[in-house]
Specification:
With about 280 residues, this protein is of the alpha/beta class. The protein has a single domain, classed as TIM Barrel. It is built from 10 helices and 8 strands. It has an 8-stranded parallel β-barrel with strand order 1-2-3-4-5-6-7-8, surrounded by 5 helices. The longest helix has 21 residues. The structure holds flavin-adenine dinucleotide (FAD). The site of flavin-adenine dinucleotide has 25 residues, from strand 3, strand 4, helix 4, helix 5 and strand 6. Its cofactor is FAD. Its EC number is 1.5.1.54. Keywords: Amino-acid biosynthesis, FAD, Flavoprotein, Methionine biosynthesis, NAD, Oxidoreductase. Pathway: Amino-acid biosynthesis; L-methionine biosynthesis via de novo pathway; One-carbon metabolism; tetrahydrofolate interconversion.
Amino acid sequence: MSIETKKPVSFEFFPTKTEAGHEKLIATGKALAAENPEFFSVTYGAGGSTRDGTLKTVLQLDQEVQVPTAPHLSCVGDSKEDLRSLLTLYRESGIKRIVALRGDLPSGMGQASGELRYANELVEFIRAETGDHFHIEVAAYPEAHPQARHFEADLENFIRKAKSGADSAITQYFFTADCYFYFVDRVRKAGVDIPIVPGIMPITNYSKLARFSDACGAEIPRWIRKQLESYGDDSESIAAFGTQVITELCQRLIDGGAPSLHFYTLNQAEPSLAVWRNLHGK
Ligand code: FAD
């Protein structure tokens, strides 16, 4: 299996709580930088819980590792003033891309108190404050957002968000290529032509993946679940099977016209690299 020319690729990280974790993250960034990614991105804890960590990680990856790095920014729980000052800081630091989200407040953080309720309002706010300075990414949900009333309502909301000034979108991860193709087809039929990049989750640990997938509404097909369950704690078999399944998914997505791939690295280089190298027959 191999793709002829390299597709653009991007890698996502989360800011860590400890200095040791941060050092490891930067080392991971350096390993992935060798693949010439289009950009890195760094998540943001809704309500500002990782404001300093996100900022520090973004600036270090961007300036020291020298890969253009996009902060994620969410509006739930942040005031317009908080958002404005972060946007100013990022702009003054030469950051050119941002991932704009509504976010989910961590449990225990209380009621959302942000002035902006949905991501489309955040996109409008960023455009109003900063014009065309930022390339704005938004989130897309080929299997529908878990809180959506139904698929059609979520599709309409995505289309509104795209039209409010987004340049491109990154999807929630999924394991069935058809949901991506159906979603893209419906978005195109609505006259929206921004790139929609599949978010790719390497498989390395079944129980964590199952928990996370339940929360974010990503379906793990029965045949994948059954296979992963059968491996128990055998992490080598999980990694080998996971790499094969995700490589085949990526190949189908690329063959079907996906413009690039965005890997949720969970701050580890090897699982994403194994898939990326497989795709190029390395
Ligand atoms: P929205 O697009 O606002 O949608 C949220 C819900 O509201 C959906 O059900 C939608 O159908 C509905 N909706 C949207 N607009 C409207 C409207 N105008 N009126 C009525 N209903 C509406 N979370 C974090 O906290 N930090 C991160 O760094 C982070 N990074 C992410 C990166 C990617 C690529 C993805 C896919 C998700 C990420 N998330 C992150 C998770 C995300 O914040 C959650 O999924 C959140 O619940 C929704 O965010 P959103 O931007 O998609 O929201």
